[in-house]
Amino acid sequence: MSRQKMNEAIEVAGAPSNSGGGTGRRDFLKRTAMAGVGASALAVLPVEGARANVTPERGNNGEELPGEASLGGNITKVLFLTINVSDLDRAIEFYEATYPVKRAEVLDPPVQAFNGFGIPKGQFRARMMRDSQPFQGSAILLVQWLSPRPEGVPYPEANHVGWYREHANASQTGQAARYEQALANGGRPYGEPSLIFITPTTQIYAFGFRDPDGTTLEWVGPLDPTPGGQPDSVAGPNNNCRNLHRSYAWYKNVLGLDLQVRLNPTALQPANSGSLGDLLRNPDGSPHPGPVDYDAAIMVPRADNRNSVDLLEWQVPPSYGSPYKHANNLGMMNFTYEVENVQVVYEKLLRVLPDPRKHIVAPPETWDLGAFGEKKTLNILDPDGVMFQFIEKVHSTDPEP
């Protein structure tokens, strides 16, 4: 295959369906765009028992809660993905050298209760790593826990349930350059940039690599540079779920996220497609060396469709394991949205969730984040136990700009 053709997403006309292969389980997309780059919602997942998203809600005092029953109208934008590291200074240098982010705000909270993390007394140091685009995108918050100390390891399995990989678009520099850059800075790639089907007819280039602690980062995009193209950017994390239909209903009707595009290839692919990891596991824990299959939905908040969640169910082999039990585990921990009012979000969740105790880690609380200021926060778990966080937007009280 020529380098020019390898740089393009490959359209395979008339790709065979899986209808004769015994699955008979999907309606497939006929066209799509690269995940996280402004793709349109071209397919809709069927949702069984999904709750209507239009019922108005009222607070404890009878006041009407803004927006619909879901949180769709309450989320104002994506803030950051939290990644726990063992050495903050080392991580800052590594991420700047291998990813499209630059160091920004310092978080240096005093010892306090972080009940939303299940930590009654703790302390960490952290650094915000912001997308380098002039028009601010998402960010990564690198966190080193001081008390309790970091524990565990990031998920070694590419099909492990939970936040597994963050991905970025090599839309201008190209994958070949980013691959060499990762190698030069000690970020071990799982393989060279390779093609992976994301729909029945479309392939993209991707490769994953590990940060110094073993957390997986990913680049997608063309192989060679595209001068004058869009700047490289952070696009959003991948969340491996156990059941896509159940999780999709929850993300749509509780979080209020919108479907941007469904990624639903029809045929089994080689295990190393996209170079996304070293290891896949079967439900019994044994390694899975064979072909793979998955189904995914790219979900975005309506106020910020640049920053997505890649909600993915591994099907061959099935999604494996359970999310981290402790918030100080090394690896990707939570995804944070800004909201207008944390208390309103909390009261909505008490009404829309069948069993709030399974999803709300603790009631809203205010954290002193040192130089980053005081923030009203709320932490919740999705149906698989994967964490999301809400931080209340701070409004200026200064009468002058």
**What's the SSE pattern?**
HEEEHEEEEEHEEEEHEEEEHEEE
| DSSP summary, beta strand count | 19
Determine the N-to-C terminus distance. Answer: 57 Å
Portion of residues within helices: 10-25%
**Global morphology:** globular
Radius of gyration: 21 Å
What does this structure look like?
By secondary structure, the protein is mainly beta. It has 5 helices and 19 strands. It has a domain at 79-331: 2,3-Dihydroxybiphenyl 1,2-Dioxygenase, domain 1, CATH 3.10.180.10. It is 11% helix and 32% strand. The strands form 3 sheets. Strands 3, 4, 5, 6, 7, 16, 17, 18 and 19 form a 9-stranded mixed beta sheet that branches. The protein is globular, with a radius of gyration of 21 Å. The chain starts with a helix and ends in a 9-residue tail after the last strand.
What's this entry about, in short?
This protein has 401 residues and is mostly beta strands. The chain has 5 helices and 19 strands. Helices cover 11% and strands 32% of the residues.
Topology of helices and strands:
Blueprint: H1 3-6, E1 57-58, E2 64-65, E3 75-84, H2 88-98, E4 101-107, E5 112-114, E6 119-131, E7 139-147, E8 162-169, H3 175-184, E9 194-197, E10 203-210, E11 216-220, E12 233-241, H4 244-253, E13 258-263, E14 293-300, E15 309-316, E16 331-339, H5 342-352, E17 365-368, E18 374-381, E19 387-392
Parallel strand pairs: 3-7, 8-11, 12-15, 16-19
Antiparallel strand pairs: 1-2, 3-16, 4-6, 5-6, 6-7, 8-12, 9-10, 10-11, 13-14, 14-15, 17-18, 18-19
